[in-house]
Write a structure and sequence with these properties.
This protein is mostly beta strands. It is built from 2 helices and 38 strands. It is globular.
């Protein structure tokens, strides 16, 4: 599919259609693991019970998302996407320089803003930043970029560009100290904040207290223009641990949000974070996976004067987004959620929610055959389970996942990483009449991918919004186009609110195409 590059200022403006998006359409997925060429097993003993991430990004500038998949005790693997537009999914394992063992996860990010994506490898041991050389080749850059990879069990990552900086700030979340006994509780290690120092990284700052992070996300929860760092923590809440929200303000030491600022203590087995503006009020909701007790949080009070409190309420039950037990089979034990991601799998203009599920190993108090969830959003904002009907209710020990349009047909496909079992991949084969857009943001250095921007698509009765982030999920994420379903709209107005606060004009684009939106 041809990628269309255009100047927003030159596009004609026309009236959009006023027909409301249709009711949710049941999607159809076909597993193509046997033929797609994606062959990877995330292996290892208890030191690899978390992690198992996969990331999608375009490493050879052909407008098709490629994959890097963690291997644990197996080497990480890069798979080049050779899928034909609208055809079968096809990938080729390629030597890239990323073939490290002990990799739990990987996140793509253009650290040096040269237009070529780099990779941060989260490892059991020293983390590595890998500089992208182009054409899917990478080299270690820890020494050249002053990055201290430490020697911990790293399982979470997020990144942002602080105002006035040419290099990003990287947050790394660490799990338990393998040199200590796992029981009793008390073996969590410090998380790190790697801030820039010119065109390198300064020595990392410890984020204390730390409670065994499994997911991190820089997100502008109050639309202040300065993202905060949200951390999902897996364990140690018996000794005071809880979910965390950190102020990360340029020129200041990081500081936790307090109860006086509205932050309410929340203690769950936090695994993964996904965010999206579900109710179209301009502020993101957050889905946090856990063992049995997933949360869907929304702001308790919409800010009107810029002094909003960081108070969130859980709406998982009224939204039917709990997914706390298996919905197929006869195992009634609680579920274990890992990666979560919002994407519109049926292109009806309402994002859906995928959750990768899987027992930690053989924990008898939790479901041993735990199907992955695919929650379709209804027109009223509630969700309904469709994983089994859509064909993605696999019951492996799932961990990381990625949803992206791998064959450029406008339908979001799926790849899931399983512990000690082969990764799986599904092609979205829905026969949908709905339309779509894919929007890629670009700006001059620094921060070429416009991390921290908001991209908006105007619908007849609401505005779809997506915050461009790096982080969240379970040990992996995506760097690439933002996918929007349009329902029956054949054209739509789009605009970008850039990281520096510049607000672009609304411009009309035709549906069923990919656009590169360049900051003027």
């Amino acid at each position: 599919m041809k990628i269309l590059t255009f100047s927003l200022a030159l596009l004609p403006v026309a009236a959009h259609a006023e027909t409301a998006p249709p009711a949710p359409l049941l999607p159809s997925f076909s597993e193509v693991t046997a033929t797609a060429g994606v062959t990877q097993i995330f292996a290892g003993d208890w030191e690899y019970m978390v992690g198992g991430g996969v990331s999608s990004f375009d490493c050879n500038a052909d407008a098709r998302p490629d994959l890097i998949i963690a291997g644990g005790t197996n080497p990480a693997k890069l798979f080049i996407n050779n899928s034909e537009a609208g055809g079968d999914l096809a990938f080729t394992e390629t030597e890239s320089g990323l073939e490290r063992t002990d990799v739990l996860g990987a996140y793509p990010i253009d650290i040096d803003s040269d237009g070529v994506p780099d990779i941060v490898l989260l490892r059991q041991g020293e983390n590595e930043v890998m500089r992208g050389l182009g054409n899917c080749k990478f080299e270690r850059a820890n020494e050249a970029w002053g990055f201290d990879g430490g020697n911990a069990w790293s399982a979470a990552f997020a990144a942002t560009w602080e105002k006035g900086q040419s290099w990003p700030t990287l947050a790394v979340g660490n799990y338990i100290d393998i040199a200590q006994d796992m029981f009793p509780w008390g073996s969590c290690t410090d998380n790190w904040l790697h801030r820039p120092e010119g065109a390198k990284f300064a020595a990392p700052t410890a984020l204390k207290p730390s409670f065994c992070a499994l997911s991190m996300l820089f997100s502008d929860w109050n639309r202040s223009g300065t993202p905060s760092l949200r951390i999902a923590n897996d364990r140690e809440y018996y000794k005071g641990g809880q979910e965390q929200l950190w102020h990360v303000i340029p020129g200041q030491e990081p500081a936790l949000y307090t109860e006086k600022e509205g932050w309410k203590r929340l203690r769950i087995w936090g695994m993964g974070i996904a965010s999206h503006d579900l109710n179209f009020d301009g502020y993101p909701e957050y889905f946090v996976t856990s063992m049995a007790d997933n949360k869907l949080q929304t702001l308790a009070e919409i800010p009107t004067d810029g002094t909003a409190k960081a108070t969130f309420k859980d709406v998982a039950y009224p939204k039917h987004a709990i997914a706390q037990r298996p919905y197929t089979g006869d195992d009634l034990n609680p579920s274990t959620g890992w990666h979560a991601q919002f994407e519109d799998v049926n292109n009806d203009g309402l994002v859906d929610l995928f959750i990768a599920k899987g027992n930690v190993d053989s924990m008898p108090d939790f479901a041993l055959r735990d199907p992955n969830n695919l929650l379709l959003q209804r027109a009223d904002g509630t969700f309904e389970e469709a994983g089994d009907r859509a064909g993605v209710a696999a019951t492996g020990l799932s961990r990381g996942a990625a949803l992206a349009d791998f064959n450029a047909d406008g339908l979001v496909d799926l790849v899931v990483v399983n512990r000690r079992e082969p990764a799986q991949i599904w092609r979205n084969t829905s026969q949908s009449p709905n339309h779509w857009l894919k929007l890629t943001l670009a700006q001059t250095a620094p921060n070429t991918d416009a991390i921290g921007a908001w991209v908006e698509v105007k619908m007849p009765d609401h505005i779809q919004r997506r915050e461009i982030t790096i982080g969240g999920g379970q040990a992996g994420g995506s760097l690439g186009p933002s996918h929007f379903g349009l329902g029956n709209l054949t054209q739509a107005e789009v605009r970008v609110i850039w990281p520096d606060g510049t607000i672009g004009a609304w411009e009309m684009v035709k549906a069923d195409a990919s656009y590169r939106l360049q900051k003027p």
